[in-house]
Model the fold of this input.
Amino acid sequence: MDIFIGLLIIAVGSFGQSSSYVPINRVRGWSWENFWLVQGIFAWLVFPFLGAMAAIPEGSSLFALLGEGGALKAVVYGALWGIGGLTFGLSMRYLGVALGQSISLGTCSAFGTLLPALFAGTDLLHGAGLILLIGVCVTLAGIAVIGYAGSLRSRSMTDEEKRAAIRDFALTKGLLVALLAGVMSACFALGIDAGTPIKAAAAAQGVDPLYAGLPVILLVTVGGFVTNAAYCVFQNVRNRTAGEYLRVKGATLVNNLFFCALAGLLWYSQFFGLEAGKSFLAGSPVLVAFSWSILMSLNVIFSNLWGILLKEWRGASLRTLATLAAGLVLLLFSIFFPSLFQ
Done:
């Protein structure tokens, strides 16, 4: 029962993340770099800080907790992840929500699951390590099938149809950006792993396991915010778009702030859900190690459902849709695969 609850919590957070790019479509009068920076303030600073405050032991402070060890490494990994988060947003721009998230998150899933295990000395050819490796391979197989569905769709569409579905559609550029995003985004998992002493200290001081890992999430997202903010400010100067922050006023400003805050909250929910869900998976080391891959698989599934609702697969052939469905089924199977060996 605990495993089911843990997976359900992770799924709820994943749905939030996969929905986080939808509110951005309601932002008006701001260029990409403007709304990306504003939603990032909420996603990577405001809500992670509020979450971290829930994990402060009685009689202690956030700074004291963050001094337990691993904080600097978590921030550095966060800065590297920030590059992935930045290019992740660009992959949505060039490939759309469905295909962009599928390629990025598939790559992120593999690296984010296997690298921490390798750094911990896990033998991936025997026992629990082998189960972990096979599970990642199943996940990558599902991603590959979805990617193939995307290529089938691309070949069958005219340039006009591509632009109608995704304004800045560019397959080759989008695939390269999405792959880079996936590799660098995996650093988030390494950042979480680096902050293990902080999480352990919080738990040892009586913090509920549901919240013990949230201060580490804050460290990683702070690092990511620095990278993204630097790039957005650079783009403001380069494109002369800084004035847009002030030109938007009244109801439009309220609208933009609301939807950026909503996008930030939805995005943060995935990692709140991941840490909370893992507390219910503690009895299964394999599932805990595989939880990152589970989150990424769910993100791909939900993002493709959003892609269907947003008509990004409009006009696709029956063969393309069947291929997409097969990829989603593979991903769904990968989520439950490790639990078959418990």
Notes: The chain has a mean pLDDT of 83. The chain has 14 helices and no strands. The two ends are 13 Å apart (CA to CA). Residues 49 and 218 are 6 Å apart (CA to CA).
